[in-house]
Amino acid sequence: MSVLRWHALSGYSLELTQFTVGRATIVGGTRALLDAIGSVTPFERRLDTAVAAVTQRGNRVEVETRGGDTFAAGAAVVAVPLNAVGAIEFTPALPEDKRRAIALGQASRGIKIFIRARGEPLLQNSIRPGHPFGHLDTDWVDGDGVQQLIGFGIDAERCHAGDLPALQSQLEAILPGYVVVDATAHDWLADELSRGTWAIHRPRLVRAPPRRDATGRGAGCAGRLGHRQRVGRLHRRRDRVGAAPGARASALTG
């Protein structure tokens, strides 16, 4: 469904869809955008500060961290992954439709794996249905014949970056002739600040445009305050929108 939405937003043009999700990137990467915003905005930044509760008191909102600190403001923007927002206590409680959506969660349980492999120095793009990482694409090629490949799979349990012999067998099945040198992947399912891979909503979860409810808050509820930013989450793809060029080297060299 998410891919169909990309297609619709691109005017139902396959060529434009491939361009918008594959070729347009931010110069300097997402990190450059975040730094630019932060450099001109007068606010305090708190990283590695998980939020425990959000309480609305009249026209004020109080945010309490797990460490016991409390911050008050006129409004709070909760923008964390749907599967993680259930760890925050809201007072008053969120409306029933929001609680149902949070309990249902988003559907993605996939994996994004980075593999360094030695072989013919050609840009590769391989697809094999049913494979643990059934879409494999070259990110960049070193001068010594080693290239970084990025693989996407639908089930993180079927692919383990630390098991190089198993990865070698899986790589042979989708791209024969290459030897695995190293690999890495973040476990987004186990990460308490994500509890899922991509934001792929379940069927019929999104039915209507945002509206105001009885609490005066908008209908959107997709994340957590105090969300910890991970450089590893911002791997660069030269051919993917929203990728972060400045973080590419962190995949296997950081």
Shape: elongated
**Helix content percent band:** 10-25%
How big a fraction of the residues is strand? 15-25%
Total count of domains: 2
Individual helix count: 5
CATH class term of the largest domain: Alpha Beta
End-to-end separation? 34 Å
Strand order of the largest sheet: 6-7-8-5-9
Q: Quote the CATH topology of the largest domain.
A: FAD/NAD(P)-binding domain
The count of β-strands is 9
- Tell me the series of helices and strands, N- to C-terminal: HHHEEEEHEEEEHE
Radius of gyration: 21 Å
Structural class: alpha+beta
Low-confidence stretches: 218-254
Global mean pLDDT? 81
Largest sheet: 5 strands, antiparallel
CATH architecture of the largest domain: 3-Layer(bba) Sandwich
